[in-house]
What we know:
Blueprint: H1 9-16, E1 24-28, E2 36-39, H2 43-56, E3 64-68, H3 73-85, E4 88-92, H4 101-115, E5 119-121, E6 134-136, E7 158-163, E8 173-177, H5 178-191, E9 199-202, H6 209-221, E10 224-228, H7 230-235, H8 237-247, E11 251-255, H9 256-267, E12 284-288, H10 294-304, E13 314-319, E14 326-329, E15 338-340, E16 346-348, E17 352-353, E18 357-362, E19 375-381, E20 402-411, E21 414-420, E22 424-427, E23 430-433, H11 434-441, E24 447-457, E25 460-467, H12 470-474, H13 476-491, E26 500-502, H14 518-526, H15 535-582
Parallel strand pairs: 1-10, 3-4, 3-5, 5-6, 9-10, 9-11, 11-12, 12-13, 25-26
Antiparallel strand pairs: 1-2, 7-8, 13-14, 14-17, 15-16, 18-19, 19-20, 20-21, 22-23, 24-25
Amino acid sequence: MSQRGAATMLDIIQKLGEMEARRGLHLCEDFISPPTLVPYAEFPARVTACAEHFRAQGIQRGEHFLLPFETSEAVFFSFFGLMEVGAIPLSVKPYILSTPKQGYREFLGRIAERYGVQRILDAPSLSGLELPLRRVPLPPAGAKVAGARLREVDPEELAFVQFSSGSTSFPKGVPITQRNLLANVRMIIQNDARTEEDRGVSWLPLYHDMGLIGLLTCVCAGIDVYLTQPASFLLDPLGWLECMSERRATLAVIPNFAIDYTLKTLRELEPKDLERLDLSALRNVYLGSEPINIPNLDQFTDLLKPRGLRREAIKPCYGMAEAVLMVACVGRDEGWRVATAPNGQPAISVGRLLSEFEVRLRTEDGRVCGDRELGEIELKGGSLAASYYVDERPLRNEDGYYATGDLGFLQDGELFITGRISDRIKINGQSYFSSDFEQAIERLPFIRAGRSAVIQADGRVVVLAEVSHPSVLERRAQSQRQVSQKILEAMGVSVMQEDVLFIRYGQLLKTSSGKLRRRELTEAYQQGRIRVATPMELRADLLRMRAQRLFYGSIMAARKHSAQWLQSGREVLRSVVGGSKRG
């Protein structure tokens, strides 16, 4: 779809009304059930109806409004409806069953107090929660206003507020203007040379910047996009691959976690189990949000190469909420590149910066880095915000650069990320990164993937890890030695056996985007609040986890059987109708 003349997201929505009815957003409960199409041609009418609903509820222009961004048709159009009213949606994580209720209430309370919020969208996930906020009901399902004409918006008007990951402090609000939103969306679309024939598949949550902005790039380009619930991927990672195969998807946006998690399933399968997959249409799988596990990425692509997945389709990228989303990405038809970082560890390229941004790297003493010199990444220009929201402190320094808190180096014009400053571990003057330690120990078969944290406390390197079986704890000393040995082999660093702790499940605190909250973990360790697991306690944890999987798995199985029965019925009906016509 041509974006000529569009200056804001609402301009784009209005232009979608001119599209043919067959293209749009395809909403799926899971990877099995048939999707529900919401045609782009209906978007202006849907957004206008939502705006009228919110005006009738007394929502005013400029009002701050909490939006628990669930993956649903009603919440998605509420987002645009609030934008049409001129209210300011604050996009936050919805309540999830595994989250402590009190912690979630406190999170909403802090945001409400900081930004003067009085009302919240009454999303289904909030059912049963007592909140100190007035609930506003969802708009009527499927409501439309014929002949809708959306308002003209100043490009400098605030579209919404998204939040930083919160890995080092309470999440900070980032003001996203209409101008910056559309600018970054266009950068991404132009970067991958998107056409109307492209198709996207996503399960990422919409409160996550990658999930929302990734989806909006598809909407703005007017291409078909299939959106399913985040839990679908957790329950059925193979279903994600099958969905991309069946839909002939060309685009996807994922964090590194998706590679690691899917790989666990792929390792358990035989090649014949994957024969039905055809991933040859994929040309852009944006991979970002967290450190990339290079050996796992290599194995993932090797296992799926016979199924048509090209190495060049995987696009490591770099971005942040402060810039709306993307800042750098591996170029078209280029495979990722691995180089040895200044600290001797392998690092993966995230490509060149998008042309609208400038970058420089600076050492700890403030000197600008040369080629292949490790330093903090500083950004300027592009769609970078001027400040955090309702915060007098400038986001940028006196030179106009934003210090990202990320460390890396430049080589041949490409940017390589090595880790966060807050994740840096210094030993004898040498910089190491927690993620390198974690990726090393997670190669051991008894360490749960994605469930380890390496911290530095009182000058010592400490390993906090969840293990997969009680037998590991029954031979604890031997298992600890294996972890220490793996770190020594991979990193050249000695870790004392007693500093390897095998811990109870559920203590590795993470942000809404899946990043470890290392500062809080370090404090918990130093205060003696980390609970080491016994074999009996681990058995209890495993039973609890299996019960949860059985519960959610039974729901998925029921949906799958229902979908299969429905499909069988359709095929029978087609054969009967086809036979009667021939007769």
